[in-house]
Amino acid sequence: MEKKKFNFKIPHTYVLLISVMLIMAALTWIIPAGQFDRIEQAGRTIAVPGSWHSVDANPQGFFAIINSIPRGLLESAEISFFIFLIGGAFTVINETGTVEALIYKLSQKMAGREILVIPIFLFIFGIAGATLGFSEETIVFIPMGISLALALGYDSIVGMSIIASGAAIGFSAGFLNPFAVGVAQGIAELPTFSGMGLRIILFIVLWIVTSIYIMRYATMIKKDHTKSLVYDGIPKNKDTSDEFIKMNKRHIIVGLIFLGGILTIAFGVIQYGWYIQEIGAIFMITGIIAGFSYGYGPSKVADLFVLGAKEMIFAALIVGVARSIVIVMEDGLIIDTIVNGLAGTVEGVPGAFSAIAMYMIQILINFVIPSGTGQAAATMPIMVPLADAVGLTRQTAVMAYQLGAGFMDSIMLTSGVLMAQLSIAKIPYNKWVRYLGPLMIIWLLIGVVFLVIAYYTNYGPF
């Protein structure tokens, strides 16, 4: 008899997320409840080292579990509505054909050198991640990156990588990242952005390694499209030069309006500390002005905006579902217990291994606290005295945090940003993990090497 081939099908993304949430809910019945005392310091709520204490358990039952989903949607509303706004604005801009015309122009300019687009875009978004803390903001550029990649003969994975992975390596190196390194150094009482030299070297290494990795994959699938991990789910690449829109004066005007919007956002983030709400507002008005400038009437712009927002429903909802996992752990009072238990394992670990242990702990904690700033506020007050006790410099502890909090966001199910990016790109989570997995291992090993360097050079100033 012919044996039946067993095919394991990865469940739907919502099923995966809810499964993780149910596991966390079950752990609230097993892991002892506990909390740190917290104080306000420089406008932030931080945990007091050594203050963990048991509290009455609050295991999450059936109603708490199902209620966590609407609560997650509510608490992540800022990001969800941000996604709706950029979806609507980008659809208006995209309908003008400006992005398509620009991509066609770029593809002509890069004829025979298409592969260079990869390191160029990685560098641009890497700098944005390292200086502006780009994370949620990358969602805006995912459709553009995919359009560019397809036009150059690659696939949607390459398109997402040049945007998302670029921002990820920049965020992880974080030499001028105010939202992660800046906060962590403030808690550690280090000079802001001190130790920048080693972080810049780290960024360059990550940029080179990531560029080579993506370029190898891109070259492989350009030679044989059937080797693309998303070959069955995307339009087959072909010569579409006759189908592209040729650039005209209106496209140039819309392009300048879009560029003006991006520059305004960059200025606002640097000068005034703008975040999602302000960025969404600027992008919304940019899309509206672009539509009017192209000659669309108010009703046409409104119709396109609604259409674009509708296409983002899956991405916007998934952010809320991912947030519900954290809500279950917070309400079950097990996050502080997990942090305290993991931090305690660093004590007694000798030499450079203590830095690596701290790094691994931050990676594990990142799963339950996916926010970079939130993880800094929750863990650095614990890790700084631990670093002092085991003979690590505080700067090394900050690097362990930034690497542990940065890399895994590119692959974790609990990352609402990643889930939104994949939804917009229409890339199945299992295909993304299969693609990024080897690169993730390389990133993690690079992190180990740099922490060993930090240990033996007494990375400081202290």
UniProtKB/TrEMBL annotation:
Q: Has keyword Cell membrane?
A: yes
Q: Which domain of life is it from?
A: Bacteria
Question: In the UniProt record, does the keyword Transmembrane occur?
Answer: yes
Protein localization: Cell membrane
> Per UniProt, what is the membrane topology?
Multi-pass membrane protein
GO terms for CC?
plasma membrane
| TM segment ranges | 12-31, 79-103, 115-134, 140-160, 167-188, 200-218, 252-273, 279-297, 304-329, 399-420, 432-456
Q: Which PANTHER family match?
A: BASIC AMINO ACID ANTIPORTER YFCC-RELATED
Could you tell me what this protein is called?
Answer: C4-dicarboxylate anaerobic carrier
